[in-house]
Amino acid sequence: IGAALFHTGMAQKIGESVVRMAGTGETRLMGGVMLVTIIMSAVLSNTGTAASLIPVVTGICAAAKLKGSRFLMPMAIAANVGGTLTMVGTPPNIIVTGALANAGLPTFGFFEFAWMGIPLSLVTIAFTLTVGKRLLPSHELDAEVEVEQEVDPSTVNHSKSKQMISLLILIGVVVTMVFSKQLGVSL
């Protein structure tokens, strides 16, 4: 599902629209970048989320006449923190859950990691936007950032119907996982 969101261009579209809503002020834009990155990396690959947002963030920073170098570290940190929100946000969460299942022990629920992940995310955003902001680099980036991406941009299919289908499937899976106990569904 995560790969479908990246390959259809929906992940990039989500990132662009949320980050645009934050405006052009450095603090608001940085907060918006971190928030969208945390949310996306909670249900998608945190590496893929960061990779898909790099060109979006650098492009928006160029349009807002802000230095992109100041936004890439907060985005990377947010991608890692966002992975702590759900069972599928980062590989260690999946590995631990699988090991517990193999041992015949109770496993973690989909959002059980959020008890620690939400406070960690809030503290991370607050720290980065205050103290951490002073520690960020401030230099120009090349127009073309050379980054190995999980998704090759030439293979992205921007079909609106495929974007909507991938988004609806993701929402359906998340809703099913949230209400799996009430529905009597074993995941």
Secondary structure layout:
Elements: H1 2-7, H2 10-21, H3 26-43, H4 46-63, H5 69-82, H6 91-102, H7 114-129, H8 160-178, H9 180-183
Helix pairs in contact: 2-3, 2-4, 3-4, 3-5, 4-5, 5-7
Order of helices and strands: HHHHHHHHH
Strand content: under 5%
Distance between the termini: 16 Å
Unreliable segments (pLDDT under 50, ≥5 consecutive)? Answer: 147-151
H/I helix tally: 9
Rounded Rg:
17 Å
Question: How many β-strand stretches?
Answer: 0
Shape: globular
State the helical fraction.
Answer: 55-70%
Structural class determined from secondary elements: mainly alpha
Report the major sheet: none
Average pLDDT over all residues: 80
Overview of this protein structure:
- The chain has nine helices and no strands.
- With 187 residues, the chain is mostly helical.
Task: Label this structure with key terms.
mainly alpha; 187 residues
Structure summarized in a few sentences:
This protein has 187 residues and is mainly α.
